[in-house]
Amino acid sequence: MVESYPVWNTVQKLVSKGLLKVINETFVPDFKKASKILSDYSIRGIGSRVDILFNEKLVGERSLPQALEELHENAVYFLSGRRHQVKKIAF
Description:
Elements: H1 5-16, E1 20-23, E2 26-29, H2 31-39, E3 49-54, E4 57-63, H3 66-70, E5 76-79, E6 82-85
Antiparallel strand pairs: 1-2, 3-4, 5-6
């Protein structure tokens, strides 16, 4: 097998970060470590995250600056097909 330099370079970086391990001459991903990194990443936006709470339970999130436009007092927020009205904004 001929290794492509960019691919091999990426594999080496993943190994050095502990995201990929070599076990019995086979590359094995560390799903637990990768999952932790991905849980901190949001594809919805690029800003800080705003938590959405209902009865003191986390039910959703929005990224800034979208949250500033969508989650003002008295705004109606749709979550899983149900309507929720914003009662209070806390910073």
